[in-house]
Amino acid sequence: MEWIIIGIAAALLTTFGFVPQILKMRKTRSVKDVSLITLFQFSAGVVLWALYGMHIGDSIIIAANIVAFITLTIAISLYFHYR
């Protein structure tokens, strides 16, 4: 049971890992210190993790990575908006 809690905690931390960056971009209206390559690389990684989660049927992996992809899509949109 404790491994499920660890998995959920890890999923939450990584899923919402870019939210502070999104908030900073919106507040400062600047993306000067944001790496677009990092955003795309991380996006590719979470898509692959979601596909892996689908393959093994793990709903935590699937949900966490879909939400992470959505937050990264927002970050990429803000990058192009404030660039």
Structure commentary:
The protein is built from four helices and no strands. It has about 80 residues and is mainly α. The chain has one domain (about 1-80): Monooxygenase. The longest helix is centred in the last third of the chain and has 24 residues, at about 60-80. The termini are far apart.
Question: Could you tell me the strand content as a percent range?
Answer: under 5%
CATH classification class: Mainly Alpha
At CATH level 3, the topology is Monooxygenase
Estimate the mean pLDDT confidence.
93
Number of strands: 0
End-to-end span in angstroms?
Answer: 45 Å
Low-confidence stretches: none
Helix content: over 70%
Number of helices: 4
Backbone shape: elongated
CATH architecture: Up-down Bundle
